[in-house]
Amino acid sequence: MHKNRFTRIGFILAAAGSAVGLGNIWKFPYIAGENGGGVFVLVYLATVFFIGMSIFIAEVLIGSNSNKDAVTAFETLAPKEKKYWKYGGFSFLTGLLILTFYSVVIGWIFHYIVLSISSLPANFKESEEVFSNFVKNDILNQFIYYTLTFIIIAYTISKGVKKGIEKLNNILMPSLIGILIFLLIYSIQLDGFYKAVEFMFYPNFAKFNTNSIIVAVGHAFFTLSIGMATILTYSASLDKNVNIVKASTYIVIMDTLIALVAGLIIFSITFTAAQEPSKGAGLVFITLPAIFYEMGTIGIFLALLFFIALAFAAITSAVSILEPTVMYLVERKNISRKKATYSIAFFAYLVGIFVLLSNTGAYSQTLTFGSKNLFDWFDFISSAILMPIGGILIAIFVGYILDKEVSKKAIVPYTGENFYKIWLFTIKYVAPISIIAIMLKEIGII
Ligand code: PHE
Ligand code: NA
């Protein structure tokens, strides 16, 4: 285990790689669009930096202090009579659920990388058809891309923390950042840039409603990868004497900046083509490709870069989702890393096939239960229920169960008493109360 640790920068890139994903480039722009922009972005920023970052720090604290898989981490740090806290570690199972639909979407991205160079849809109507045709009818190609996704993920994890995860992130993350900077510079000189800035940063209170708050808080969890032992597990491969507040701040800032930059890029392009940003989940897969087509040759180039960036962001996240389960099996069950990786990946892969099929015309009826198909259920259950519960568990554990000396020692020397007090207050009261309120609201109880 000890040879297999992240370097400090390796950890920051890998954790940022986990955080920066579909949530930033695909989801954030379209939910910001649906919720009217400015005010939503404000609420999002507030929740990410207040609640999200506090829990993020708490997860890093548990991981880096125990240097153990999630289950053992809780077990080691819990006081003697409260060892049942180890079950909190099983929040990593949420990840397996996410991994299924997340990988299906990565498959779509691969398809769009190919479309960028072969045949972008010529207008919006065609673009809509291309997308829905692919998702609903093209089972074979979806299946091939989906399989490829799992091979990449499993191969990376099987290589371990240093040779697999760190290496992958060392390549993909700088490339991703480079591409985004390029696309941002390109966007700045588009006519729609100013409107994009206005849309994202000018708060239009008329569009404000409580539902936007729910969406923003739910997304704060998803975007920071918290509440399912992912960040905890990565931190377990980090040395104890690292300034965890500083490292967490870098990661949260990187995640936020990339979401904002992705939004600026996408909205600049959208507004320049005189399109509406409120097209929902189709913004990236339907609206953008048609605009890229209209741009001609440069559009093909931009489309290619954009979908490659999206793929890089998503793959580093998917990899991070698998690691907690694998690390648990390796450390607790003495299974070799290769065996653990391939068996768990194969299991998730099989379940994911049903998730993929639940979107298709042929099987959607069979795989729809009540109001949602399997794809939407998995998304809903993980983001709206399981991740928030995982977040509350972390908050309660660190706020009430964990010896205060442990958290003080990891934070106060770097930040001073005042920061620690604010952080602890957030962890003990603000985070759990607001998360519970939001969950109740989401389920429809309040
Ligand atoms: N944070 C990732 C994103 O924004 C998603 C993710 C969730 C990754 C949970 C790991 C764990 O896309
Ligand atoms: Na994110």
TrEMBL record:
The keyword Repeat does not apply. The keyword Cell division does not apply. Its main location: membrane. Keywords: Membrane, Symport, Transmembrane, Transmembrane helix, Transport. One of its GO terms (molecular function) is symporter activity. It is found in: Membrane. The chain crosses the membrane at residues 37-58, 90-114, 139-158, 170-188, 208-235, 247-271, 291-319, 340-360, 380-402, 422-440. It is a multi-pass membrane protein. GO terms for cellular component: membrane. PANTHER family: TRANSPORTER. Belongs to the sodium:neurotransmitter symporter (SNF) (TC 2.A.22) family. This is Transporter.
